[in-house]
Amino acid sequence: MRCEPEEASNEQGALRVSFPMSGFPRPRWPRLAEVGGRLDWTRLRYLGSRLFGEASTVARSPGELPNPKVLPPGQRVYAVGDIHGRVDLLSRMLDLIRTHEAKAPSAANTMVFLGDYVDRGPSSREVIDRLLAFGKEHRSVFLMGNHEEALLRFLVDPRDGLQWFRLGGLQTLASYGIDIDALHFGVGPKGVRTAFLAALPEAHREFFLTLELSRSIGEFFFCHAGVRPGVELGAQAPHDLIWIREEFLTWRGDFGMMIVHGHTPVAEPELLPNRVNVDTGAFATGRLTCAVIEGSEIRFLST
Fold it and tell me: Rounded distance, CA 184 to CA 189, Å?
């Protein structure tokens, strides 16, 4: 049986791809080996029509940004960068956010998590548990990162699993109690997939299957990796939203909205005229970063 991801959008500017849950049957896109190790997102039906609707130096403060973008009055957004299995850092960040909220109450707070919750770190399962619990108490947006996309592709077709393993998927499997040493004793990707599906809680499946690709709030556009210059934000390819790097990072022009993203680790959070990068390599550095956006002001919280 063949099937395709289901598409969904909402009135707040969300773009989401949901994969069918029943047995994760293989959709009609090709194997990674057939497309040079990269998923051919052009096979997906275009979602853009249902979406809302590098700078050279780091700015020292929002006041230095030309034509600053703004959120609607009374709204504040907390945008959290790549977590990568570090539940210790996530717990500290959520405490920082709660403290900030208490000291500076706002009429409407939205938490945006920019993806890459899993892999590399030792506690991917615990990270998802903590995010699910936090999401019940706070208005939260969970975006898809390239690591979640790789995990889903493994569940769709274990033949694509080796790339996920190289990205840190083995650490994620271990956090769910999968014996990854069995891979050295003849247990192939199909067997690992079967064990992973059995260990994956239903709430975690639903979490991964309903991650959004982007979200727009006011004049800010949130996605995991970035956007392709010259393409309308409403027409961005899903692959670019979660995988793009150089074409986006080196672009000096205005995207029409301020792009808030992670994906590419930097030593310090970047506040540039056209984008904000909050991936400070938490897995390796111990520093998880969150952008706090209110009006045209952008500040940072870090562990």
Answer: 11
What residue segments make up the domains of the chain, in order of their start? Answer: 66-145+213-302
Per the CB < 8 A criterion, the answer to whether 139 and 110 are in contact is: yes
Q: What is the CA radius of gyration of the chain?
A: 19
Query: pTM above 0.70?
Result: yes
CA distance 20 to 205: 10
Looking at domain 66-145+213-302, its CATH superfamily turns out to be Metallo-dependent phosphatases (3.60.21.10)
**Dihedral sign, Cα of residue 289, residue 290, residue 291, residue 292:** negative
Closest to 91 measured CA to CA, from 77, 104, 80: 80
pLDDT, tens digit, 9 for 90 and up, residues 200-259: 999 999 999 999 999 999 999 999 999 999 999 999 999 999 999 999 999 999 999 999
Residues whose CB falls within 8 Å of the CB of residue 169, separated by 6 or more in sequence, listed in order = 118, 119, 147, 150, 151, 154, 161
Cβ count within 10 A of residue 214: 28
Q: How many CA atoms lie within 13 A of 147 on its CB side?
A: 25
